[in-house]
Amino acid sequence: MSTAIEIERIVKSFGSGPAAVDGVSLRIEPGELFFLLGPSGCGKTTLLRMIAGFTEPTSGRIAFCTDAGASRDVTFVPPNKRNTGMVFQSYALWPHMTVAANVAFGLEVRKIAASEARARVREALELVQMAQYADRKPNQLSGGQQQRVALARALVVRPDVLLLDEPLSNLDAKLRVELRSEIRRICKTARTDAGTGGITTVYVTHDQKEALSMADRVAIMSAGSVVQLGGPGELYKRPRTAFVAEFLGEANFLRGRVVERDAASITIETAAGRVRSTHVEALPEGASEALVAIRPEAFRVVNASGGENSLAGVVRESVYLGELAQHWVELKPLASETPGRVKVALLNPPVPSAGGGEAGRDMTLAVDAADVIVVPLGDAMRRT
Q1: Which helix (H) or strand (E) element contains residue 294?
Q2: Is residue 384 part of a domain?
Q3: Who wins on pLDDT, 305 or 30?
Q4: pLDDT at residue 51 tops 80
Q5: Lowest mean pLDDT among 188-202, 209-223, 328-342
Q6: Using CA of residue 135, residue 138, residue 140, residue 141, what is the dihedral sign?
Q7: Are 19 and 58 in contact (CB under 8 A)?
Q8: What is the pLDDT of residue 226?
Q9: CA pair distance 188, 201, nearest whole angstrom
Q10: Contact 373, 293 (CB under 8 A)
Q11: pLDDT tens across 184-213, in order?
Q12: Do 151 and 128 meet the contact criterion of CB atoms below 8 Å apart?
């Protein structure tokens, strides 16, 4: 069995300014790998610390619930009585202790019998693939190995809830990628005192790729509130605001007015042409203007203009990225009276199929209606 986390209208204020966490309500399901994602200062770490017990909320409630239906209010329970495991950004390993002694520390505090403690330490180190380094000191390990030891130390006590505070931020880019799938595997196979089947995990990060590649669900936070909650694919393909669209990956924005709308689609007139979208749920009924967001990888290069969702432009810059190239295309306005031009980015093979990526060359782009995101204009972080 695993533990669910119920967070009800939790608030944390520091002084008289805006609340760091402002009325957040969430349910994190048993065994779920749940991400709190957002920019610096959005409240995600403060929320994690309230779940851990390191920070007391100003108001609201936090409860841990078992599969059997029992609920335990932990809002003001001290951290050492919550049975949570915490992995910090800095690893926080004792430099004078061996790997095995670092992992065993929490068991000693809990006064676990020596024979059982040795078995648990071995099991935890095997889970993170560090058993062969049990007798080494932390300064004899790489950054990635130290992070695995920190994770083993949190798991060895068999916590009801595992809390990870940007655990990969101190590692190089290649190692971060390698450890993503490993951490997910460990969280999904970790053992709790209640049994097996995965441990409920809350993971704080500002790295969108970590969230997209690892999470079961993601809560995107801004200014102390959850602005959208859902699975990685849903959030990436169906953001409800410009903030979410731009924060969760790259996006090209085009401002326009609504010219047609029905239950299944919406058509927006932009400076570069009309685009139709089947993404209708985010725009309120009656809105006369909107913001169109298109991911760079959604564009394709076509040979002729005039089809649905085709936009003509001129290549201004191309950057070679190995298996892909990124092109910045300045879209041509529909009429001379249309003010300004719009520059968009697209990803394509290094030699586009339509032939052209060189600066100054004409290029026509097309995009499927299902890949055109429409969000309210007032939510724009950046307008073009």
Answers
A1: strand 289-294
A2: no
A3: 30
A4: yes
A5: 328-342
A6: positive
A7: yes
A8: 96
A9: 9
A10: yes
A11: 988 888 766 655 568 999 999 999 999 999
A12: yes
8: CATH: 3.40.50.300
Report yes or no on 191 lying in a domain.
yes
**pLDDT at residue number 381:** 44
Give the pLDDT of residue 231: 96
Of the pLDDT bands very low, low, confident and very high (cuts 50, 70, 90), residue 15 is confident
Residue 190: which domain range? Answer: 3-237
272 pairs with which residues across the strands? none
Please tell me whether residues 125 and 180 are part of one structural domain. Answer: yes
Torsion of CA 255, 258, 262, 267, to 10 degrees: -50
Where do runs of H (alpha helix) occur along 110-241? 114-127, 143-155, 173-189, 208-214, 232-237
224 pLDDT more than 60: yes
Rounded to whole angstroms, the Cα distance separating 342 from 129 reads 50
**More confidently predicted of 173 and 256:** 256
Residue that has been written with the tokens 């749940």 in this structure: 34
Closest CA to 25 of 7, 3, 45: 7
**Which is nearest to 305 in space by CA: 293, 314, 317?**
314
Mean pLDDT, rounded, for 251-261: 90
104/111 Cα distance (integer angstroms): 11
Element containing residue 16 per DSSP (H, E) = none
| Alpha carbons 118 and 126: distance in angstroms, whole number | 12
Contact 103, 121 (CB under 8 A): yes
Q: Is position 225 within any domain? A: yes
Write out the two tokens for 206.
């500002």
Last residue within a domain, chosen from 215, 237, 259: 237
> How far is 314 from 358, CA to CA, in rounded Å?
9
Task: With H, G, I as helix, E, B as strand and everything else as coil, classify residue 53.
Answer: coil
| Residues with Cβ within 8 Å of residue 135, at least 6 apart in sequence | 98, 99, 100
pLDDT at site 77: 94
Place of tokens 């991400």: 35
**pTM score:** 0.87
Same-domain status, 87 and 222: yes
Can you tell me whether residue 369 is helix, strand or coil? helix
